[in-house]
Amino acid sequence: LIEKIYIYSLSTEWKKRASRLKYNEKNASYLFITKHGNPYYSYYPDSNAEGLYNKIYDGTAVRMKISKLIQTIQNKFPEFRRFSFHDLRATFAVYFLHDMTLVGYDTNSSLHELKERMGHSDIESTLPYIKYYENKAKLEKINVNYQNILFNSEI
């Protein structure tokens, strides 16, 4: 999938759509663009500060597409669990925090970097991801301890 997205980012089709964006200096920031040159999801400061679009693209088109895709999958596999676009953002946030920790960033730096990447205007919106990540790490340690007790002890 990553390779296909990369190929698309270099394609004539993407360049044609990107040329229709109203804030051309930021074309590289938007990979998924409608045939009319609108981003499927706009970064709020881009659209608001520039005043170029009549509305801010809030991801409705993406959510609708994901919803249709999920319905198609559930028709074939009824046990498939439903998820939302926000679930994908939350998954990104947790993995991003994990990767920041792995390369040595402290919690405060990770939090501020994640805030920017998520497009949050307020750090309070980002705090739940740090709390979730820290709790998840603690729970994983507890699970490992219990697994060691259950499977490595002699009874």
Overview in brief:
Helix content is 62%, strand content 0%. The protein is mostly helical and 155 residues long.
Throw out a few tags for this protein.
62% helix, 155 residues, single chain, mainly alpha
Structure description:
This protein is mostly helical and 155 residues long. Helices cover 62% and strands 0% of the residues. The protein has helices at 2-9, 12-19, 44-50, 60-76, 85-102, 107-118, 127-152. Helix 5 crosses helix 7 (127-152). The mean pLDDT is 79.
Low-pLDDT ranges: none
Largest sheet: none
N-C termini distance: 48 Å
Helix-strand topology string: HHHHHHH
- Helix percentage range: 55-70%
Estimated share of beta-strand residues: under 5%
Shape: extended
* Tally of contiguous helical segments: 7
Rounded to an integer in angstroms, the radius of gyration calculated over CA atoms is 20 Å
Instruction: Classify the secondary structure makeup into a structural class.
Output: mainly alpha
Count of extended strands: 0
**What is the average per-residue confidence, as pLDDT, rounded to a whole number?**
79
Topology, element by element:
Layout: H1 2-9, H2 12-19, H3 44-50, H4 60-76, H5 85-102, H6 107-118, H7 127-152
Helix pairs in contact: 5-6, 5-7
